[in-house]
Design a protein that fits this description.
Layout (H helix, E strand, L loop, with lengths): L2 H16 L7 H11 L5 H18 L1 H8 L3 H15 L4 H17 L8 H18 L22 H10 L8 H20 L1
Helix pairs in contact: 1-2, 1-9, 3-5, 3-7, 3-9, 4-7, 5-6, 5-7, 6-7, 7-8, 8-9
């Protein structure tokens, strides 16, 4: 990990400790993603960010398994995302699989309110395929936050944080959300960069 990334992570951890809602906001996450992929070619950047999202979904797989019994479907979808990021699967095919999985998990499934976190994890897995096919461009003037996006465009890490918090935006448990983001900065990011 670069020294610049290490310094930024320390600053983000400090920011997170002071955050009332326990949230690592989207503009700061985008800055982090830009910093950790600095100097990488587009294909390497896509692989790094896809792996980071996959680590997050895997971290939340126990939440998914509470509703669905196991994480086999998540594993398959994350494998498709990694294949797409590596160019081993055509983007169009990957996005079609993403759309089918998203509809089956988010739109066609019945959830009791206490099961919404499982939906968030499934949604995060689907959107990891979007990460795998996206050309990430960091725009420091783009100050939109997660709540400003359409739900189908939510970032996987945000969705998994929401699963742990058991609520989107300022709903749910701020301390569980904060714990997720601390894990993200202290464990997931270093893991993907090792």
């Amino acid at each position: 990990m670069s020294e610049k990334a290490e310094v930024l992570i320390k600053k983000l951890l400090d920011e997170l400790r002071m955050s009332k809602g326990g949230e690592l906001i989207l503009p700061l996450r985008k800055l982090l993603w830009d910093t950790i992929t600095s100097g990488q070619a587009e294909d390497a950047k896509r692989i790094t960010l896809t792996k980071l999202d996959a680590i997050c979904v895997t971290h939340g797989s126990s939440i998914w398994s509470k509703k669905f019994g196991n994480a086999d479907e998540l594993t398959v979808v994350l494998g498709i995302a990694i294949d797409a990021a590596r160019g081993a699967l055509a983007e169009e095919d990957a996005l079609n699989i993403r759309d089918d999985f998203y509809v089956s998990v988010v739109e066609d499934q019945e959830y009791a309110p206490h099961e919404y976190p499982a939906m968030f994890v499934g949604h995060a897995a689907a959107n990891t395929i979007v990460t795998a096919t996206d050309d990430f461009i960091f725009d420091p003037t783009d100050l939109r936050n997660d709540g400003d996006l359409e739900p189908d465009a939510f970032e996987p890490s945000y969705l998994v944080a929401s699963a742990f918090a058991e609520g989107l935006w300022d709903e749910g448990d701020a301390e569980q959300r904060r714990k997720f983001w601390e894990w993200y900065l202290s464990v997931a990011v270093p893991e993907v960069l090792s």
